[in-house]
Amino acid sequence: MQENTPRYLTLDRHLRTVFGEKVQKIPLDAGSTCPNRDGTLSFGGCTFCNAEGSGPGTGLGSLRTQWDRWRARYAAMPRMKSTRLFLGYIQSFTNTYGPASRLASMLRELSALPGLVGACIGTRPDCLDEEKMALMADCPWPEFWLEIGVQSFNNATLARINRGHTAKDAENALILAARFRVKTCVHLTAARPGESGEDFLSSVRRLSALPVSGVKLHNLYVPKGCAMEKDRLQGSLPLLEQEQYAALAARALALVPPSVVIHRLCADPAPGELIAPAWAAQKRQTLDLLDAVLRYNNWTQGCLRQDR
Ligand code: SF4
Q: Which residue in 18, 56, 102, 244 has its CB near the most CB atoms, within 10 A?
């Protein structure tokens, strides 16, 4: 394999194949909440959730106002000003929570955004049903992704991090989405409290046997204001070193089917929110280390799968 041959299928490469040119994501905030934050399941939320609902919390104003602000910002950047196509990414909180009519109105608002060729909607597995899937399946864009926070397929881990749903809920959501031909991107995090690297790889294997089209792998980090912060300050929350994460993520990548689009390979803390580990702010360095592990072992996406 040549030195510069891609070893995995990035979202950027996938989008260039679909559209023939660069597509830029624009983060949007739909003002959603979450059953794990509003008292329906809990008030505390997942132990890693930041004040913005595990997203950047980018925006005040309507989706159109936020969209226009981002478009103007990109138009002023020399390397971005020729970009014509955009994906709207609604990340923070649980965007399919509440009645289907709320989701329908969000999708209508997205449809009116100029230059939008697709969308990614973030949610949790227990806030989906047939009516909502049908709405998403009807979206007119060439690219639509339902991003589902699964975190782990280990029920003990899910209980420990106060997710308020089970691994079965996640499996059911993924199977339901596949039935409606809605593409899903699953979020998994390495080395959650109490989990070994092997536990994380077991979740990756389980994910790889399900009808999933995309994946985001995250390293665990502690953002300001989350429930884990206290454990970290008391010294009872071990975190991976950067090299350990790179080695683990490379192995995980080698277990993911080659057709699955890799949306992200490490977490991306918002400016000012990172408590630990410090290396989580060095995303480029983490990706370079991961690439080095892949090259050293001559691994490519899916190369360690048993069923190849
Ligand atoms: S499901 Fe998402 S938004 Fe809700 S508490 Fe957990 S991380 Fe936060």
A: 56
